[in-house]
Structures are given as C-alpha cells and as structure tokens.
Amino acid sequence: MDLLIFAVLGTLAIAAASQLSDRIGVAPALILLAGGTAVGFLPFIPAIELDPQLVLEGVLPPLLFSTAVSISTINFRRELAPVAVLAILLVALSAAVIGVVLALVVPGLSLAWAIAMGAILSPTDAVAISIARRLGVSQRIITVLEGEGLLNDATALVVLSSAVSAATSGGVSIGGVLGGFALAVLVALGVGWLVGEVSLRVRSHITDPTVDTVVSFTVPFLAAIPADHMHGSGLVAAVVAGLITGHRGPRMLPPAHRVASRTNWHTVELTMEGLIFLVMGLEFFGIVEKVDASALGVVRAIAVAVVAGALTIVIRALVVAPMLKVLSHRTARWAIHWQENEDAIHQFQNRCSAIVRGESEMPPVPWDRSPLAQVQRRLRRETNHESIARRALRLSSRVRRRGADLDYFAAEPLGTREGAVIVWAGMRGAITLAAAQTLPTTAPHHAFLLLVAMLVAAGSLTIQGLTLPALVRLVSPAMAGPADEEEKAAVISLLVNAARDVASVGAHGASQHAVPTVSTGAADPDTPGVQATTSMPELDKVSQAAPDPEDNESLSPATEQHGLVRREGNDIVVSPAAIAKAWADPTWRHDELAPMRERALDMIRAQREALLDAGDEGLYSADSLEHALDRLDFQEIMLTSEPH
C-alpha cells in the first residue's frame, strides 16, 4: 500500500511540476529534484533506496529509445563525428583525469576505484537535454547534445566495469578494456538493428493503433535485454532500435499508428523522466545520514564534489574547443573541394538524369582530375540499363546529400558561441546516479562515493540548468527559427510536383485532352484545415491535382460549392485537405466522395514518399519536413477513418 501511495503522489507531483515549470520558467527536472530533496528531509519520511538495476534496465532503455525515435537521423549522421568525440574520447579522458585527482584527494581510495568513480561522473544525460531544448538554441547544438547523451553510457559503463575488475582482481589491461568496449558496441549495433527492423515489420501488420502502441512499449526491452546477456550495451541497443524505428517508421507504419504511438510515448517519457529526478531527491537524505556518521564526513564530500564537478566542465571545454576548430577546418576544406569541382558535379548530375531517362548520347564528362572518376568507371561496367539507372540514382542522391550537408554546415556553423553552450549544457543526471549505485558495497567509502556522485549530478542540474538561460543570452549562439520563405516554397514545390505526377498517371488514358494541373493557391482563412496553428498554412492547399474530367460526380454543385473541386479552364482541381474534412463530416454522402478520396490518398502517399526521400538526402530542415509530414498524416487519418 505504501508503494501505491508513493506512486500516486509521485505521478501527481510530476504533473504539477510540468505545469508549474511553464509559469516560473524552471525545468520540471529541477522542480522535482528540489521537491524530492525537501520531502526526503521531513522527519516522518523514511529513507528511500532505489535498486540501480531498475533504473539501468527498466527506466533508461525506454527513455533513450523515445529520444532516439524523435531525433532526426539525417542530422544525427551529420553530427556523428562530434558525437563520437564527446561520447568516447571525452568520457575516457574525463574518467582518467578525474580518477587521478580523486585518488590524490580522497584518503584510502586506490587509483582503480578512483577511475571507476571518474567513469560514473563522466557521461552526460540525454534526459537533461530537455533543459537546453526549452531555450530554443539551434538544432545542431541539440543534436550534438542528444547524440552524446544517447551513446556515452556505453563508454562509461565499460570503463566502470573494467575499473571495478581491476580494483577487485587486478587483471585488467588496456587491450581488454578496448576489446570490451568494441564488443559492447558491436553487439548493441547488431541486436538493436535486428530488433528495430523486425519490430517494424511486425507492427506494419497490426491494424489497431492501440495494439501497435502496446507492442512499441516492448521494443526497447527486446533490444536491451538480449544485448546485456550477450555482453553488449543494452542502452545502446535500445538507442539503435529507436533510430531504426524513427527513420523507417514513416515508410512502414500507418499514420494513425505513428500519431498514437508518439502521443503515448510522450506520456511515458514525461512520467519516467520525472520519476528519476523525484526519486533522486528523495534518496538524498538517507545517503547524507550515512556519510555524516562516517569518518570522511559531509563537508569533505561537498568539497570533493565541487572539485570533480569543476573538472568535468574544464575537461569538457578543453575537448570541445579543438574539436570545433577541426570540424570548422574540415567543413571549409569540403566547401573548397566542392567549389573546385562544381562544373564536373553539375555535368555528372546531368549525366545521371540522362541515364535514368534512357538517353544514350551524352557529352563526355571531365572526370580525369575529379574524385568522382571512379563513379564513371563503375557506371561503364554495368550492361543492364535498369541496373545502371538504379546505380545512377543512388550516386546522384549521394552527391546531392553531400551538397545538402555543406549547406547545413554553412547555415548553422558551430563556433565559439555555440561551443560555450555545448560545454555548459553537458549536465549529469540519471545515468550518473544509477551507475554510482552499481558500485560494489565492498568499495572503499561506498556511501561517500554515492554522495559525491549525487552532489555532482544535483549540482550540475541545478547550477548549470538554472544559469544556462543567462549564458545563452550572454553569448548569443545560433537559435532555432522557423523555416525561411525560400525553404517553404521549395517544400511546397516538392509536394506540388509529387501530386502532379500522381495526377498525370491517373489521367493518362482517361482523356488525352485532359491536362492534370496542380495549384497551390493563396492562403485562405476559409480553407479547410488547421491553418491557425501552423507556420506553413499553404500546405493544406498544395495537395491538389485534377481527376478525370469525365467523372461527373466530382463536378456536382455541392463539391464545387464546398471547395472540394473547382474548374480551371478545361481542368478540374481537387483539394485533398477539403476532401479529408468532408469525409469526416457525417452530413456528406460518402459514396459521392469515394472516387476523389482514393485520388487524394494516392497523392498524399506520393507526397509523403517525396518528403521522406528529400529527408534522406537532407535537402530541407528537419522541422520543415516534420511539419509537412504531420499535415499529410492528419489528412490521411481523416481520409482512412470509418464514415459516420
């Protein structure tokens, strides 16, 4: 009964903190941490201890999975280099340096145990990144922080395990540590990829969105549990499964499934994230009590925590500064190389387009001094036109992706200002607390080390979390903003072309004189759709194309009067957004709407494929693509719902 009461009160506290955070401008994690600490010190509240395995195996996998599903995979790929530096090199370096310092300042703590403690304090927390996201900094900063928080636990836990083994048996070598890390990552990659692919194929055959959501709740555990038993990183396996799900889900899962799953996962994420920080605060009193009765005392623990916390920031700054310089030089080198080969690249793209169209005669392309020379040789080795066309499409897409990457790096460079935010936003949190509690009770000064870890995590969240807004105002880094008008127009043009292709195919053979057309039209407040809440209202009208003009039902006065169709010369233009709203309206005759509904669904699905292809190539920002995909999803959900 006590556990049930705690669960109910804790859930209400999480909800209250989330509501209160919007009013006072403080992250919910900090409110729950402070509230839990205050409640934990009340005399009638018993000391609380949480099994660390529950956090590592029961809470963190779904949290990291949820974050990985929502992250832009194209942006994650682009930021893989800085993420790898922060998640591997920085964690290992921090563990070593902090370990050496702790061995000097804590009496009776051997170097092996000190390095274990350094590994506990080294990883940042993906959960704590929500504090930085609320400030509206650029997506590049958020992607780097999220990617680091998703992957650095593998490095930290491997170093921790190796250090503990060295402290207890003395039989660990550097080669063994590197081998253990490689095994943990490779197993996690394999298991996570397999679970992500298989789960998507299974979920694609589920017809009920509720059942699909239930199955999705098991995916992070299906990835983490086998990976752990195979000596891999269960958390990284959950992350990989989440990345696969987020990238492939829009192509394989119906919109209703994805919308329902996303909403329910947000609820789970809010609850579990709040639970971690609430319990962290409640545990504080019991640990303080133990340390106060020990020889080292609370004051020394606070002093050690201050030193360790300062070291985490200093080491992070020393790694981030040169990393950003290297990334800047790399981007500049790529840009120069691209400009030098711009003419050859342009001709190569034209050649690929000609190959796809089946044109055999093309002027020679000057590849001799271009790095793309091998591409031409590979194309010449092919003899089957279909195979050549597929390869040409892939290679052309790869070139466009490189160009889009350069535009992305140029639009949002990571300079000194952004580096300052990356350094200060690297907060410690749930992983530090959970990893600290996995220390064997035989470790010297066990309670003391637990308190140091908790103080570093709590201090990091409190000091850095509360001062991060002031730092952002002071250094003025690149901030996230709405898509510019040029990008909006490009996305709309992409949708228009996709709809036109479907209309052309549908009209072919029906009437040789009918020329399907697509019109974006002007933003109209009376246009069906949720325009008041979107930054791109034109998306509700771009999904337009002409049906067969011989179809008299589509020309009924009612359909024209309500904006479902309209005449433009000899052509007829239909609006899927208007048809979707009419389909959900019980006053309409659905047999009258059925032909236009099928055409609208074809156009929406073609537009989604075009958007996803553009996303794979990184042609537009993740926010613009996500917004457009959401609009299409809601239209398709309305069109595929059961008529009233």
Automatic annotation (TrEMBL):
The chain crosses the membrane at residues 27-45, 80-105, 111-129, 174-195, 270-288, 300-324, 447-472. Keywords: Cell membrane, Ion transport, Membrane, Sodium, Sodium transport, Transmembrane, Transmembrane helix, Transport. The keyword Membrane applies. Coiled coil: none annotated. It is found in: Cell membrane. One of its GO terms (molecular function) is sodium:proton antiporter activity. GO terms for biological process: regulation of intracellular pH; sodium ion import across plasma membrane. It is a multi-pass membrane protein. One of its GO terms (cellular component) is plasma membrane. Residues 12-335 form the Cation/H+ exchanger transmembrane domain. Residues 510-568 are annotated as: Disordered. It holds the Pfam family Na_H_Exchanger. Its main location: membrane. This is Transporter. The lineage of its organism: Bacteria, Bacillati, Actinomycetota, Actinomycetes, Actinomycetales.
